[in-house]
Every structure is written in structure tokens, then in C-alpha cells.
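so i finally got all the pieces together for this one. its two components total, 645 residues if u count the protein bits. some of the lines might not be protein, just check the labels. i wanna see the whole assembly predicted at once instead of chain by chain like last time, that was a mess tbh
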Amino acid sequence: MLAYTIKRLLQGVITVWFIATATFFGMHAVPGDPLAADKEVPPEIWANLQARYGLDKPVPEQYVIYLGNMLKGDFGISYTQQNREVNDIIAEHFKVSATLGILAIVFAAFGGILWGALTALYRNRAPDIVIVFLVILGISVPSFVFAALGQLGVVNINNALGFTLFPVAGWGTVQHMIVPSMVLGLGTMAFLTRLMRSSMLEIANSDFIRTARSKGLPATRVFRKHQLRNAILPVVTVLGPSIAAITTGGFVVEMVFAIPGLGRYFVQAVQQLDYTVIMGTTVFYGAFLVFMVILVDLVYGLIDPRVRLE
Amino acid sequence: MSALLEVADLRVEFDTYGGTVQAVRGVSFELDRGQTLAIVGESGCGKSVTVQSIMGLIPMPPGRITSGTAKLDGKDVIADKRIDGKDIRGRLVGMIFQDPMSSLNPTMTIGEQIAETLQVHRGYSHRRAIARAIELIDMTRIPEAAKRASQYPFEFSGGMLQRSMIAMSLACEPSILIADEPTTALDVTIQAQILDLMRDLQRDNGMAIILITHDLGVVARMADEVLVMYAGEVVERGSVDDVFYRSAHPYTLGLRAAMPSNRDDAAQELTPIDGSPPDLFAPPAGCGYFARCPHAMRACETEHPRAFELGEQHRARCWLHHEDCNVDAGEVFRK
């Protein structure tokens, strides 16, 4: 188990290095540079600035310097925001995005497992048909529509109550977090519901469920101890990629709800060719996702004993 | 003394997209304490459905038990629809299945799965149930029982899984063990070990066994009585000697001719039974075996044969035994 963990972590480091390299060269292949401003700059000043930031050196040399700094944990200073280190931007805004993302994935996972199990129990009856319809809606409608609908709902609730239960936008308190994380997790929850439903139905017809029933176990125990745990396995498998989908998809929801998350800086940096911020946010997100996928795989081993030894 | 299990006129149907399948059509049999009853017949003849309806394992819907009683110690278990810890399942009747590889929960240790039955039926504490589970594993001759109890099914071989299934089904000392093709998925040497184990445990515990199989070799080795099923009916029943040496139904003869033998004087070539079983969406009015029977007569097509008494226990559903039949039944069945 320890050897497996170490192996996975090493693989993760290689993946992150690959992400950094690909982003670095891809970014430099885009025409223009971060020093190009709206105002015409005299060529001498431009050359001085280039030298100041090391942009006059050949790209491979810049790459080596960059990797060296990255290993020291230094992602440099933003080109477009005055006196802000990339590390500060990440430290300040990532915790917002991470909180939102984690809440969303928890909401999606629990919701998906619950609704999926329910639809399987009520197969082809009214609750199943209604939930499956909603699931298709959840998968096909983009998150900004749900975000807008969510805000509308919040406004109506607040009006009906006469006080502000959930703020419409912004960040800071628990009430701020609930609606955006639900909106962000909705698509994933719909997807997981569908997966859980088919997994439950498959397990319900399996031989070991018949064995459990032949032992005379009460139906609730068969469901809880035999069906549910085995049915959850495929859901856990896709949790890793789901975390990726949620964190990268978080940008839209952050914009709509005016949440000061990292997503906004990520997108702005690309538009402005802010080299250091692009690199910093990409490498950081990449490392985070790789780590989450490894974590999910390790958790999988806790649920399914067959995976532990490999 | 009445029989341990008395099944009378059991009829089971299944609703499918193609119509209603009459899977079991009036099966009756008795099982005495400590006896082994073998149910033989080809796939789809209703063997498994018969025992599963006694156990209440038929999914309803689409299944439906339209008539019949199954009296276990005089109490009808088919009318008793409760599915709780007091149920007959696991407590009075234990069951093992064809494929041990898929019949155990892959995410639960073997010990836990055995202990579970004891916790539910006997109210044992977890610790006590696990201790008993280890004894049961040891009883089925799995070495290092204590270590094995904390392992998962994927760490076991097929034969050991079937042993664990036996340990599990016998946890509450049931009076009947139903074994639904217990050795079909295992290789031949393991088959012999499992059958020996079942027989030894039967001798020690005095339980009755219902053994479903399509392997006549297994029947000869294990059974006291035999039920030959065809197209959802019992076509012949009797002691193992009756059925093997005094076969009284053409289907039983056909099965025997299709079985390999190591006797020198036996025919070297196996004779398969031509054709396939009748469609149970619309079972034939007469004898179910009519279309494949080499001795079929006119009456067989339209008249449903009754069970003829041939000995104390021996019955066969074949018109050849009718006193007005002008074919010499003795001639047919001496072969």
C-alpha cells in the first residue's frame, strides 16, 4: 500500500512537470508578449523591460530558469497587477475556489448516491421517472443557466421571507456558499445519479445479493451491507475526473455569483498573456487535480479490498 | 412420522414480454429427515425454480406461485411471506449455489459473511458470531480458519469459496440444505471433495439435502431418492436404484444413454436426445416429452399421462405403464 502510494505520487510529479512544460511552450507560442501595452512604448524602453524580466533570452533558457524557480516554490511576480506575487494570488483566492469546489463535490457525491439509490429502488415507478427526467435536465443545461436561476430563486426566497436568508452574490459566510456550490455541483450530481442508478440495478441482480437473501437477511440489511457498498464503487471511480470538471467549471459560477475565486485570475491571465500568472495557476491547478485523483484512487482501495494489493 | 418437507402441486409462472411461461407445472415430492433427494433434468426444466419458490427467492413480479403448498415440519412456507430474521431462509433451510465465485459479496470478509447469518437469526454478538464462523470454516476443512475468516472472496479459490458457502448455509444448523448445482462450476477433483464434504456433514448433522444437478454421476454418488424433471413436471421419481436400474420413463432412459460410462460392455457412442424441450409458453396438452420420445403413441399427444405407481416409492408419468397399452413396457425399459 505504501509502495503503491509512493509510486502514484512519483507519477503525479511527472504529470505536473509535463503540464508545466506544455503550458510554458504553448504560452510562448502565442503571438505578442505581456509587455505589449495599449500605449506605444519606445523600442529602447521595451528592450530594457525585456531584459529586466529576462524575456530577451532564448525560450529554452527561460524554461530552465523558470523550472529552477518553480522548484524553489517561486512563481514570480504578476506582469499586469502591481506588486502582486503569483503565490499571493493563489494563496488568497484558491482557498475560496477550493471551498466552493469541495462543497460542490460533496453535494454532488451525496446527492448522486442518494438519488441514484432511490431511483433504483423505485425502478419504473413515479419517483424514478421524475428523477431520471430531472437528471437529463441537469446534465444537458449549462451551469450559467442554473446559476442565473439559482439567483432568481434566492431573490424570491428572500422576498417571501422578508429578510436575506441567502445573499444573491459575494462571499464570506456559510449562507454565501450554499447556493453557488449547489449550482456548481448540479451537473455532476445528475451524472453520478445516472451512474449510481445503473450500478444499483446491476448489483440487485447479482448472485451475491441472491445469496444474502437466501441467508434470510432483512431487506434493509441486504440493501445497506451488500448492495449499496458494491454499487458505490463505479461512482467513486469517476469522482477524480468529476473533481476536475467541477474545479475547472467553477469559473462561470464564480463570475455569476461574484465570488473572488482563482478561476477569474486564471482566465484574465490568459487574455492578458500574463506569463507568470498563467504558469502559476495552471501548474497549481494541475498539481491539485493530480493529487485529488490519487487521493480518490487510494480511497477506492479502502472500499474495494481487491484494489489494495495491486 | 410425516415427512420433513412435503411439496404438493406446486405451480409457478413467469410473466415475460413473450407471454406467460409455466415454469413449474404441478410438482409434488416429499423429503425425509437426513435423506438426500436429487432433482435432475436439463436446463429450463424447472429444477431451480422449484427450490427457489420454497425458499421465497422467486422475484415477484414477474414470477407468480399460482398454486401449491410446501409444508416444512407441517407448516406451509409458501403462504408465509415474511422476509425477516424469523424466516425459514438461512435458519431452517440453507442454500448454496452454482457459481461460488460470484455468490459471495466481494467487499466483505468471508468471516463477516458467515457471522452475519448468526447475528441475524441467533442474535449473537459480533465477536461471538465471528468465533463461531471460524469454527464453521474449520469444519469445512479450510486450513488456517482464523486467518481465512478475515480474508476476502477474491483471495479464495473456487473450491474454497464453495466450502465457505457451505459453512455459511450451515451456520444455523438448518434441517435442509439445498444445493443448486453446487459443483457445476468446479473442476472434477474439487467436485469430489465438495460432495464428500457435504456427505460427511450430512452424517454429522443429520440434515436433509436437496441436490439439483444434471450430472447423473453425482446423483448416483449422493442421492437416496431421485426426482427426474422434464418441462416443469416430475416425470419419474423413486429411489436411486429404481431410477437407475428400473428406469420407467423414456426420458430417464434417454438421459442414461447420453451419459458416458466406463463399463466395457456399454455402448462406446453416446446417444443424445434429439430435439429440444417444448415451449412452456403453451405447454403441450399431452405428454411433455411426446415430440422427442422414441416410443410415443397416439394417446401421448393429447392425453396428459398420470403418474403410474410402479413400486412403493417408484412413480413414472408415462402411458406405457397403462394396463391397456399394447406395447410391452417391460420390453422398452429392459434395454
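Chain A has a mean pLDDT of 85.
The first helix of chain A runs from residue 2 to 29.
anyway lmk what u think
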